[in-house]
Amino acid sequence: MTRAFTALVNPIAGGGRAAQRWAPLAGRLAAAGAEVRVEVTRGRDHAIDLAREACEQGRIAVAVGGDGLVRDVAAGAVAGGGAMAIVPAGRGNDQARRLALPTDDAGLAAVLLRGEPRPVDVIEAAGQIVPGNVYAGIDSVATGIINRSRRLPALLAYRIAPIRAIARWRPAHYRLTLDGRTLEFAAHTVVVANSGAYGHGLTIVPPARLTDGLLHVLVVGAGPRRQVVQFMAQARRGTHLARAEVSVHTAREVTIEADRPIPVGADGDDLGTVPVTARVREGALSLIY
């Protein structure tokens, strides 16, 4: 059966290069007999609506942008009961990296044309669908800094933002409820992971899997600022889970509370402030990869 695609292109992703990223792929898909439409997104709600409509029509909704657009298209695909795919064209592209998607046109086109839709888990938090991770602490503060630094090259922005966040951060007292079990502690950050990948190439929660029906919760306990810098250096090497102040828990539902209104991040965008409850929706998203 010939596949039909609706490409949802974020016009600002990757410094405005998303359309250029899609053009050669569209040519390959059309040459293979696929039907291809292109829609330029105007914001989150518009992207969700377009993805939902495409899926309701039996088309594959393709997110051509960064992790924020992937999140929005996933929300539409879940609502529309259809399948989505990803063409990484943003600054972080951590979801595509975690899925080990090809980076070349031929490889990506082959995935789009012949890859089978597979069920993966998503997080539902604050009324939104999040395929990657929800986090509150230094990293969510850094997310805000990154999003205000769009003129900087992506890698530079992702490296500078944590340093600026650390400089103004003080540990918070958290209350974490995991499937009804409550923990209280002082910490720098809490990450509720589905994919476990963020920060332009960091696998911040290595045990996290998109298909295990669980949320993996990383806690970085309080300590001096130098400890946070050391943690981040080890995170780039993948050795950070051995640190004494780091713990990982699993649950299907997690509520994060704190002693002040800490921002909550979700796949590179803002999700408000704590308190927030995150629940796993097992196998809710059909994803081609």
Topology:
Elements (H helix, E strand, L loop, with lengths): L3 E6 L8 H14 L3 E6 L3 H13 L3 E6 L1 H14 L2 E6 L5 H5 L6 H10 L2 E9 L2 E3 L2 E5 H10 L6 H15 L3 E7 L2 E13 L3 E2 L3 E2 L11 E7 L3 H13 L8 E6 L1 E6 L4 E4 L2 E5 L2 E13 L1
Parallel strand pairs: 1-2, 1-3, 3-4, 4-17
Antiparallel strand pairs: 5-6, 5-17, 7-9, 7-15, 8-9, 8-14, 9-12, 10-11, 12-13, 14-17, 15-16
Helix pairs in contact: 1-5, 2-3, 6-7
Verbal overview:
This protein is an alpha+beta fold and 289 residues long. It folds into 2 domains: 4-115, Rossmann fold; 130-279, Tumour Suppressor Smad4, CATH 2.60.200.40. The chain is 33% helix and 37% strand. The protein contains 8 helices and 17 strands. The chain has helices spanning 18-31, 44-56, 67-80, 94-98, 105-114, 138-147, 154-168, 225-237, and strands at residues 4-9, 35-40, 60-65, 83-88, 117-125, 128-130, 133-137, 172-178, 181-193, 197-198, 202-203, 215-221, 246-251, 253-258, 263-266, 269-273, 276-288. Helix 1 crosses helix 5 (105-114), helix 2 crosses helix 3 and helix 6 packs across helix 7. It is globular. The two termini are 18 Å apart.
Strand content: 35-45%
Number of individual domains: 2
CATH topology grouping of the largest domain? Tumour Suppressor Smad4
Note the overall shape.
globular
- CATH first level of the largest domain: which class? Mainly Beta
What is the CA-atom radius of gyration, in angstroms?
Answer: 19 Å
Largest sheet: 15 strands, mixed
Our count of helices gives: 8
Helical amount: 25-40%
For the residues shown, what is the average pLDDT?
A: 95
- End-to-end gap: 18 Å
Query: Which second-level CATH architecture of the largest domain applies?
Result: Sandwich
Stretches with pLDDT under 50, minimum 5 residues: none
Say how many strands there are.
17
Tell me the structural class: alpha+beta
Element pattern in H and E? EHEHEHEHHEEEHHEEEEEHEEEEE
